Amino acid sequence: MALKKKPVKGMNDRLPEEMEIRDYVIGLIKETYKSFGFSSIETPCVEHLENLLSKQGGDNEKLIFKILKRGEKLKIDEAKEEGDLTDGGLRYDLTVPLSRYYANHANELPSPFKALQMGNVWRADNPQRGRFRQFMQCDIDILGEPSNLAEIELILATTCLLGKLDFKNFTIRINDRRFLKAMAAYSGFQEKDYEKVFIILDKMDKIGLDGVASELEECGYAKESVEKYLQLFKEIKNDVEGVRWCKEKLQGFLEDEAADSLEMIITSVEHAKEAEFTIRFDPTLVRGMSYYTGTIFEIAMDEFGGSVGGGGRYDKMIGKFTGQDTPAVGFSIGFERIVMLLSERGYEVPSKREKKAFLLEKSLPKESVLKVLEMAKKEREDGKQVMLVKQKKNKKFQKEQLKEQGYTDIIEVYADSNFD
Amino acid sequence: MALKKKPVKGMNDRLPEEMEIRDYVIGLIKETYKSFGFSSIETPCVEHLENLLSKQGGDNEKLIFKILKRGEKLKIDEAKEEGDLTDGGLRYDLTVPLSRYYANHANELPSPFKALQMGNVWRADNPQRGRFRQFMQCDIDILGEPSNLAEIELILATTCLLGKLDFKNFTIRINDRRFLKAMAAYSGFQEKDYEKVFIILDKMDKIGLDGVASELEECGYAKESVEKYLQLFKEIKNDVEGVRWCKEKLQGFLEDEAADSLEMIITSVEHAKEAEFTIRFDPTLVRGMSYYTGTIFEIAMDEFGGSVGGGGRYDKMIGKFTGQDTPAVGFSIGFERIVMLLSERGYEVPSKREKKAFLLEKSLPKESVLKVLEMAKKEREDGKQVMLVKQKKNKKFQKEQLKEQGYTDIIEVYADSNFD
């Protein structure tokens, strides 16, 4: 009656060493965002299929784990399609559940509402390095705050967290969907083509200016527009100067407010940051999700060769659930990537407790056991982590194992041990 | 395009106040068991259906949320039964995943292995007060320790946790499956009838001695056996005296070792306990799951009018996965019940941070915003929780809301405010 030992495809068992880092990072995330006034929330892992399939999730909607209906016995042989058998699915992100949550509870929540949501999400992706079918997401959102105070606080809190984890020299890339649109309009692209143009622009990192130029031309856009467009990217500086330059150059296409706001975000973050990093205006930053309406940002970390988080303003999405637009800005942290980076660099969780082990002789008399229990209690009250174990035949190996687990102080206990 | 606002049936959104308690209790659980040398582990929420259906789960196996297979397109119209369409399901407890986990990783784990697993489980139960379709379980297990040191530490750690949550005057009921069997054998019941007898005995709390007697007789068991059986319960004291009395009385039916071990567990717990509670030998304690092989225990809490946790020794279960018997003792804490009890009695999480709010005038000039950001940073560095919010029209209401959230120190900030 041997059963399957391996976990299901693409999902992981977590060993104690990994869990120690995970638990520590989770605690630090909760602690840090709390200090900025964020509240923890939780939503169920199972969500209505119709919410999951509401076109907010992009390609993730193809990767849903669907759940058989419960209740009356299912008539499998009469079923024609998946919809006849399923009504729920495992969530693929935390954004759809957050929107539903806010729609359901806005009356009970403060405004603005600063929410921290951590939880597992599931995607039936093809597993590969750093990509799993169950993974933890960590979303931080401010709902109901139209001003850029929301962006400023999100970036400050998130970078503060990364600083506490000893990450240095990372970069916050920041842009605004309104800049993206204004640049495209200024260059003569038509509104209907914007999304396609942005998808190509998004490849700048990989294929460079010339690559973007030739792809745009291949798509049949006017050479004049393409040249005008690319000239902008050549001239724009990656700082507040660049933002101001855009404000001048894109007049008539870009609202002054958008430029002033972006400048203020960059200045404020530089002024009040609590970690070592750079914030860089990056007009080539696109971010895939079409629900973004304003500021967008991403954490670029050279160590990882990619992004470990990002987000932006999405003022229209909550309204799709509630019928009433609610300003919203969110940040999603790549929890799994951060844990992976920490593990790879041999990160040691700052341990607050000394570790002490008592190795008890196998048939220790009752009185001695009582004595050891008492000592262990006292050591714990003094703040130590105390392990009691029975001695094994191979005591040497046992002690080595304990040392590997960090038990530096190992006391062997025998019937004749005297602890008074 | 309005979407469904309510969560799926029987599963809950968690509001910030509830989450504050949950997060606190989770942190305390991890901290407390860690101080006893337990390690956190995690298993996927999705488990192989064949593992879930391996008859370890009792009635829970009827309550599984099954998940549609992924991969090739499903041929719904050709499917005859659920097994044609599903290969995974949401776990209904943490015991099956723990057994699989240990089978998969025993070589990488210390022995004995002291594991703490917290995570959601799902059961398609009919929702009612205190019973949900998604809920958090918290299991603590010691694998690979045959001696009663495992039972002693599990009970000490768990009661220490409850003490830290200000629970008092609860009772640990303790018994041993071997006592149950010995008492039945002594009274003349046949081995094949034990489980049926125990199911009736388990009702003692509700129907009393006489009720148990008449139900046993109704089932057709010999009057003599029933009387002999019940006489035992009348005579047994609920302490170590009772255990010793059984050792004498049940000679030939009960191994001495079982009685000595139970006596030692009770004595040790009384000696080294770190909370105010009673440990009581309770020969009527049955616990449903038939996989228990030795000690069984339960936390009885009058406040709740029932059990908030329990467990026991199950030396045969791991072997079903591994083919090799592994001694095991586990405790499952009723996390949701504990959180409910705390909420109902208005439990306030011990807050370490003072809370301070800055209420910013709506169009505060940039220089002032920078100044406030700087002050907030300093306050956070001093250990405070700092909230920045823009002033709203109804400032009075806004301040009341902040006070309700615990922001006792509220500073209004205007362009002409002087903070130097």
Structural notes for this entry:
Chains A, B: Its EC number is 6.1.1.21. Chains A, B: Belongs to the class-II aminoacyl-tRNA synthetase family. Chains A, B: Residues 1-350 form the Aminoacyl-transfer RNA synthetases class-II family profile domain. Chains A, B: It comes from Mediterraneibacter hominis. Chains A, B: It is an enzyme of class 6 (ligase). 2 copies of one chain form a homodimer. Chain A has 420 residues and is an alpha/beta fold. The first copy, chain A, folds into 2 domains: 16-344, Bira Bifunctional Protein, Domain 2 (BirA Bifunctional Protein, domain 2), CATH 3.30.930; 355-413, no CATH class. Chain A is 40% helix and 20% strand. Chain A contains 14 helices and 14 strands. The first copy, chain A, has helices spanning 16-35, 49-52, 95-105, 149-164, 177-186, 194-201, 204-218, 223-235, 240-249, 256-272, 317-322, 335-344, 366-381, 395-404; strands spanning 39-41, 46-48, 66-68, 86-90, 113-122, 134-143, 170-176, 277-281, 295-301, 306-313, 328-333, 355-360, 385-390, 409-413. An 8-stranded mixed β-sheet of chain A has the order 1-5-6-11-10-9-7-8. A 3-stranded antiparallel β-sheet of chain A has the order 2-4-3. In chain A, strand 9 (295-301) and strand 10 (306-313) form a beta hairpin. Chain A is globular and about 90 Å long. The two termini of chain A are 52 Å apart. Chains A and B meet through helix 1, strand 1, strand 2, strand 3 and strand 4 of A and helix 1, strand 1, strand 2, strand 3 and helix 3 of B.
